[in-house]
Specification:
Helix 2 crosses helix 3. The chain has six helices and three strands. It is mainly alpha-helical. The protein has two domains: 71 residues, Winged helix-like DNA-binding domain superfamily/Winged helix DNA-binding domain (Arc Repressor Mutant, subunit A), CATH 1.10.10; 37 residues.
Length: 138
């Protein structure tokens, strides 16, 4: 089975997002490793994590696995950046400025985060990102 387009994937549930965040941060992980990280916040059965990962793979196409000995090692099918772009497209029709405006209106961005965003934007401009396309010379 080929890799589905990120736009074709179902939206992950809250718990599935928690699992994806663990996989993005830790890299490929076993059920035991994911369970250990998730269970820190309270009671959560190992079998529940195992079932969630199976659903995320077989029904939703969010993760893949390979076998290491007798252990399934899970990997996200899409990077955090690919998933962010999908969110931006689905919720804001690809308009990054609308996303930032929404964050600023809800006052969910700290002063430190604003400074970091300003630095990231300046760096992107220096690399030529966001510049209008150059016309080809004849």
């Amino acid at each position: 089975m080929g890799k589905p387009a990120v736009d074709d994937l179902p939206t992950p549930t809250g718990r599935e997002m928690e699992i994806l965040k663990i996989l993005w941060e830790q890299g490929p992980s076993s059920v035991k490793e994911v369970h250990r990280r998730l269970a820190r916040g309270g009671e959560l059965a190992y079998n529940t994590v195992q079932t969630l990962l199976r659903i995320m793979e077989e029904k939703k196409g969010l993760v893949d696995h390979h076998v290491d000995g007798r252990t399934f090692i899970y990997t996200p099918r899409f990077s955090r950046d690919e998933s962010t772009a999908r969110f931006l497209d689905r919720v804001f029709d690809g308009a990054a400025a609308q996303l930032v405006q929404s964050l600023l209106r809800t006052e969910r961005v700290s002063s430190e985060e604003l400074d970091r965003m300003h630095t990231l934007i300046a760096d992107a401009r220096r690399r030529g990102m966001g510049a209008p396309p150059r016309e080809k010379s004849a």
